[in-house]
Amino acid sequence: MSTEIGQLVGQAGPYLTAAVVAYGTGVLTRAESAAVEATANIGRRMLQAVWHRRDDQSRAALESAVADAAAEPEDDDASAALRVQIKKALREDEELRRELASLLPSGSTGTVTVTASGTRAIAAGGNIGIAITGDGHDVPRQ
Q1: Who contacts 38 (Cβ-Cβ below 8 Å, separation ≥6)?
Q2: What count of other Cβ atoms lies within 10 Å of the Cβ of residue 48?
């Protein structure tokens, strides 16, 4: 289950960051805005779901983590502190895990689709370093 929570928080990370950057500390109480991109609105909905299921002490910790992440969106430590708060909530509430997972776009399941197009093209699902096809086409002929 810990792996499942880690994956969920990893997938939610960009949405949470976008929401915090777009809304700041108001993300916990603000309504959806058509002017804000869909990514930020998904993150806002996730944070609000966590917020509404926490006790006063946990809400204060979440609010503090959101404030730190909003103040310094490029600070990896602030983002990590926010993720820790989300993980704590997810460990304690299975229904919340399902709710947050349902908010993620269906393409966020961890699968990657890669398409190769064109003559001698290859496809890879990430940085594979040097790709050698072995066709010898680029080797100078004597």
Answers
A1: none
A2: 17
